[in-house]
Amino acid sequence: MSAATTPATTTPAAHPAKPPRLLALSLGGTITMTATAGGGIAPTLGAADLVAAVPGLGEVADIEARSPFRLGSSSLTLANIAAVAAEIRAAFAEGFDAALVIQGTDTIEETAFALDLLVGDERPVVVIGAMRGPQQPGADGPANLLAGALVAVSAEARGMGTLVVLNDEIHAARYVRKAHTALTSAFVSANGGPLGLVAEGRARFFSRVAPPAVPVLLPGAGELPPVALVKIGMGDDGRLLPALAGLGYAGAVIEGAGAGHVPGVMAEAVGELAAQMPVVLASRTLGGPVFERSYGYPGSEIDLIARGAIPAGLLPALKARLLLVLALKAGFSRERIAAALAAFG
Ligand code: ASP
């Protein structure tokens, strides 16, 4: 029917759209921390307290607040995050539109990437935290909570896996790094920079990432295989490496210098370790891929890969380590581990 023939009186009343359902899960962190009698701040607040303290948040979404953990984020484990992922998956199955994870900033770059590997849904999972506690002047928690919720409910955020929002910037889980101990601008995205920002109450994206091209790596029951992380320093002789198998490690990530290099005297130990367990080669630099075919001296990436090391691609050591834990738990072969790492570029 054309507009000209539609009597104004019969136009259906516009029904207000149902607000999106957002699950907010708090795990602890500075954003939840208040002063303790013993000195310093510690996690005391839960998700409901945080949500109630942000004016305007109730208009963004219909929020259900839960508080599964109250921890400093350096005490969170991959098993904790697998439980959080299971709760998010159950909430999505029940009809929630997005999830907001509230936690400490110290390990956000790890937990966000773990959630990326463990949730596997096109609905957004957004992780936020705060650099200043709620009792500090200029506390950034409320602004980060509001910005995170705005991103979580935005249509453009769908299909990009897990995102991290702090300081009004939107980061992809695979690229985000904590680069400062104190500033509210502590988070950076290696390689491509942030995906977007929040301004005037709206999420705006400049670029997108594809969701992780690896199967969802649900760990199931039982212990997670321990994976060692060894960072190389100048003059290191690698004497730690032969001890790893005896300590019960099932895999190792070596965070080499530059494009993935270790001192020449260590190369043999890397090869011996790679004969015992999967060894992933990452870089201690902030960005760029581990090389595969450029340098040919002892301890170079060509040498280490020939000795059995698996290049981490664009994934930094912390994220490659989580992928290796979950891949080992899933029983991946060396080839499938290499392919899963390569899927991130
Ligand atoms: N400094 C941390 C934070 O920003 C403490 C933690 O990660 O739990 O939340």
TrEMBL record:
Its domain of life? Answer: Bacteria
Q: Where, by residue number, is the active site?
A: 30
A Pfam family found in this protein is Asparaginase
A GO term (biological process) for this protein? asparagine metabolic process
Extract the InterPro entries matched here: AsnASE_II (IPR004550), Asp/glu_Ase-like_sf (IPR036152), Asparaginase/glutaminase-like (IPR006034), Asparaginase_C (IPR040919), L-asparaginase_C (IPR027473), L-asparaginase_N (IPR027474), L-asparaginase_N_sf (IPR037152)
Question: What would be an example GO MF term here?
Answer: asparaginase activity
Which stretches are annotated as coiled coil? none
The Asparaginase/glutaminase C-terminal domain is annotated at 227-339
Q: Which residues bind substrate?
A: 73, 105-106
- L-asparaginase N-terminal domain: which residues? 22-208
Sorted alphabetically, the keyword list is: Hydrolase
| Family indicated by similarity | Belongs to the asparaginase 1 family.
Q: What is the name of the protein in this document?
A: L-asparaginase
Species this chain originates from: Ancylobacter defluvii
Name the gene that codes for it: ansA
